[in-house]
Amino acid sequence: MGKQAAIIGTGLIGGSIGLALRERGWQVVGTDEDEAVAAEALRRGALDSLGPPTDADIVFVATPVGVAAAEARKALAEGAGLVTDVGSVKAPIVGAVNDRRFVGGHPMAGSEQEGVAGARADLFQNAVWVLTPTDDTDDDSLVQIRSVVASLGADVVSLAPERHDALVAVVSHVPHLTAATLMAMADERSEEHQVMLRLAAGGFRDMTRIASGHPGIWPDICDENSEAICSVLDRFIAALTGVRSLVAEGNRGGLLELLEQARSARAHLPYGLDRDVSLAEVRVPVFDRPGELARITSLTTDVGVNIFDLEIAHSVEGGQGVAILVVNAEAADGLLEALGKQGYAPSSRALS
Fold first, then answer.
1. Does position 230 have pLDDT exceeding 90, yes or no?
2. Cβ(15)–Cβ(22) under 8 Å?
3. What is the DSSP letter of 190?
4. Residues facing 279 on adjacent strands
5. Strand partners, 59
6. Which residues make Cβ contacts (< 8 Å) with residue 249, sequence separation at least 6?
7. 248 CB contacts (<8 Å, ≥6 apart)?
8. Residues 193 and 187 sit within 8 Å (Cβ to Cβ)
């Protein structure tokens, strides 16, 4: 029998995972709270069959974040080998599951279309997919889940759950709330609504595009990540107050400095993962103890190094092993230095 995967929640993300896995030879079973949605996923080829995740090698929980932890625990209890989820909030889910076979995940990909109708097998190609291992995560579970996710074409990075939540509040949650607020402000000007919308080509339309996303997922997200979101909103409000002062005071120099800073930062945003690079193998001797691989992969994220492949070689004598990372050759020296500062003794070699 071939590789077996299960999808719990067969909407846009779950359906896209199913399509991508089936393209790669996996047998995929799936369920959804709405039986009609699951049936549509089956009709569209995202699933081979309908049913629970019993005995699946890996289960993807693609439900709203409010029920993701319960679904993950249920899948683990039913015999799933490995379980991950796709929620955009991680700390509450990871803390509630507490199983070494579970690794929290968040594919940062989407579509203008809602539900399984927008599912695509290539949705994750070059998209960032965050994994959030902890000190309690089993190293082999992390390696296997990372391998499956990377096979879908994603750029996999590792972050601690709490750090993930703080960062996505800045780059995802607050931008969505900002876009929704701007769009609501425009809509409230009912007497000018049609004229305003005619003027809303270009910048306004681009800036508020994300407000067209499905609203149903956002109350859960805001509940689960309220502390980080409110912290970022406070900073954003303070920053806008500062901008208001620059405008009110006619501070042209201050405005220009702000706009130049923003323009420069925007120009340096990454636009995808360049796979056509020279590679190096970095070998890191580690003790076989919980959390070693989580610490190493999180460190690579901190220093901006992409991992193209990852495995853990366990010592036959026990007690020690070697983490083997394939990275961009140009970044290898910097990674060796960072690992050395953390007490590791890594080595590297170029790959032809």
1. yes
2. no
3. G
4. 328, 351
5. 6, 83
6. none
7. none
8. yes
Q: What angle do CA 285, 289, 294 make, to 5 degrees?
A: 75
The continuous run of DSSP H or E covering 348 comes out as strand 347-351
Rounded distance between C-alpha atoms, residue 178 and residue 115, angstroms: 23
Residue 281: strand, helix, or coil: strand
Query: Is residue 185 helix, strand or coil?
Result: helix
CB 323 within 8 A of CB 255: no
Q: Which helix (H) or strand (E) holds 107?
A: strand 102-107
Across all residues in the chain, what is the average pLDDT? 90
- Residue 186 confidence class, pLDDT cut points 50, 70, 90: confident
The SS3 assignment for 142 reads helix
One-letter amino acid of 218: W
Segment 253-269, tens digit of pLDDT: 999 999 999 989 887 77
Asked whether the beta carbons of 99 and 183 are under 8 A apart, the reply is no
Q: How far apart are CA 151 and CA 132, in angstroms?
A: 18
Q: Give the position of tokens 């391998």.
A: 147
Q: What are phi and psi of 245, to 5 degrees?
A: -65, -40
In the sheet with 347-351, reading across from the earlier edge strand, the strands are 307-314, 320-328, 279-287, 347-351
Contact 59, 83 (CB under 8 A): yes
The answer to whether the Cα torsion of 213, 217, 219, 222 is positive or negative is: negative
β-bridge partners, 106: 130
Full-model pTM? 0.86
- Chain position carrying tokens 């076979």: 101
Identify whether the C-beta of residue 60 lies closer than 8 Å to the C-beta of residue 47. no
Q: What one-character DSSP code corresponds to residue 103?
A: E
Could you tell me which residues are beta bridge partners of residue 281?
Answer: 326, 349
State how far the Cα of 255 lies from the Cα of 261, in Å rounded to an integer: 10
- Unique residue bearing structure tokens 């931008």: 175
Q: What is the DSSP string of 212-244?
A: GS-GGGHHHHHHHTHHHHHHHHHHHHHHHHHHH
- Smallest CA-to-CA distance from 226 within 105, 89, 131 is with 89
Distance of CA 208 to the CA centre of its chain: 22
Burial level of 165, CB count in 10 A (0-12/13-18/19+)? buried
